[in-house]
Amino acid sequence: LSGETTVGKHPVRCVEFLDRIAHEAERTMGMRFCECLNVDVDKQHMASSAVQLAESLKVSGIVVITRRGVMANYVANCRPRNPIIYAFTNDVDTCQQMALNFGTRAYHIRFHEDAEATLQEAFGLLLAQKRVEIGDKLVVLSDVLTADGVDAVLVRKISVPVV
Known about the structure:
With about 160 residues, the protein is an alpha/beta fold. The protein has helices spanning about 5, 10-25, 40-55, 70-75, 90-100, 115-130; strands spanning about 60-65, 85-90, 105-110, 135-140, 150-155. Helix 3 packs across helix 4.
């Protein structure tokens, strides 16, 4: 906001108006730069493929598990049309940075030694916030869930959380 809008009579209305503009802008493909992505980088190619998979399956979202936010950045570069990007990290600074990405909801969670426990914590958080429901499908993309140097794309169906 500029100085004029922050000191005027209706600052809340200004913020609401700008919020509407931002949401409308995010629904468009903009200048379509995403169609010219350089997919020479393996991770960008993988992210692009995951977005295409998510859109073709009409999943509820794309879950990205990342330490430094790089994979979430690559997914956001693809500007998915429908699925929301749910990015999970164990680093607070990375979480704040990812929150600025296109179509991304960033979460700070604890990573577990067991990859499935990390996924269940992420899914549980999405269920608790009513972002997904039991039976919804998600595309999961990660470069930290398995061994070093191993990237993964999964299609997962949300089931009843294990207590």
